[in-house]
Amino acid sequence: MAPQVAFQAQAGPHPSFIHVAQQFTFQQQLQNQLVAIGTNPTREDNFRLQGVQWINDVRTALQLPVRTYCTAVWYFHKFRLVHKDSEYQYPDAAAAALLTACKIEDTLKKSREILAAAHNLKVSASEHLSSDDSAFDGSSKVVIGLERLMLEASGFDFRVRYPHKHLIKLAREAGFDKDVTRVAYNMMIDLYRTFAPLKQSCATMSFACLELATKVLEKQQEKIHGKHAPQYKKWSTRRAEVLETILDLLDLYTHFQKSSIVGPGHSMDKFIQLKIKVNQEAGEGQSLNRFTEFFDPPKINGFRSNIKTPKTPVTPASPAEVRVNGKDASPATLSPRSSGSGRRGIGARGQDGTVRFMLDAEQAKEEKDITSKYFTEEWEEYEVEVEEPIKPEKEDRGPRPPYRGNGRDDRPTFHQNKRPRR
Questions:
Q1: What is the pTM of this model?
Q2: Where is this region: Disordered (predicted)?
Q3: Can you tell me the distance from the alpha carbon of 247 to that of 274, in angstroms, rounded to the nearest whole number?
Q4: φ and ψ at residue 346, rounded to 5 degrees
Q5: What is the rounded distance in angstroms from the CA atom of residue 237 to the CA atom of residue 209?
Q6: What are phi and psi of 185, to 5 degrees?
Q7: CATH of 161-292 among 1.10.472, 1.20.120, 1.10.10, 3.40.1130
Q8: Which tens digits make up the pLDDT trace of 46-81?
Q9: Among candidates 188, 190, 286, 174, which has minimal Cα distance to 239?
Q10: Cα angle at 346 between 341 and 348, to 5 degrees?
Q11: From start to end of 214-369, where are the E strands?
Q12: Are strands 17-20 and 299-300 parallel, antiparallel or unpaired?
């Protein structure tokens, strides 16, 4: 006999995983990443607002420019999309984001100086501590450890945007008054309390802040919608993105009015009425969705799937799924086990392979296509001759005699029921 045997070719060394940095992220991707790491929506809003407020207060105390604030908040949002809230304290993450931003923007501050400024904001002047105090030894080590994770979460992407420059340029081109520009400037700072900076460009956020400022102050609205107003096409944006950004700001002012700069200065009814008008404009005239590029989940057996965690775009060029404790897991869930410890979680992003960070998605895709053929599992079938021993046949002893039993017929008999004799 010649049975067929399958042979598996031995794979080469483990391929490195490529993390492609994403400068823009859609709202649906943001929601999927938050659901993938098991974030509680209520806690997410509170931690996000408290972390951004912490960054703003400390950078004001240290007299840092607004560009450092924008960079720090951007890294803070990126970090929270990858790591669970239960793995760190939001002040530590905010301090690590501000430390990273100070190095990127060349406004150098040590971790101890940032922690000392945060501490001095909460106590009286007689209890102020210097940055050299030993009370900041442990916190400083945690912040330095989170700094590396902050860079990894962003994919080592240093392409930071400064929308306030575009806001001032757009306000000068349109001819807005100083009070409108000042309100729009503060709205831009409030906008960083939302996820809009991860989704929109600088021009889109500038148009949204200036338009909402004119509606709140009820003046110079013709300069943003009139015949001589700046054109969206020139600034490489669209009406859909501007409306989405305006609604993000109005959501902040209607739900978290006290956690903003512009919100407490105006009544809640004004923001609610403006939100109703913007929703009517988006629904009636242009039939625009609340979020751009939002797709419903696919139908399975005729029913809409409730799964909100498809393969996340955290690592587009990496394997789609890995095994963690015998279960399938997304690369987005592989986060550090503790704050500042430097130990990564188990799985593809931890111990099995090296992670390389790239900015060009096309280059990463071409590299993956070239190297994928060297790491595929190939099976080859071939025949092998095997000698099998012949089993001996049973001896033939002739016909078997009939069973005699005890001389009586062993077949079952049936008797009628009879009455017993008396």
A1: 0.73
A2: 302-354, 381-422
A3: 9
A4: -75, 160
A5: 14
A6: -65, -45
A7: 1.10.472
A8: 999 999 999 999 999 999 999 999 999 999 999 999
A9: 286
A10: 120
A11: 299-300, 303-304, 322-324, 327-329, 355-358
A12: unpaired
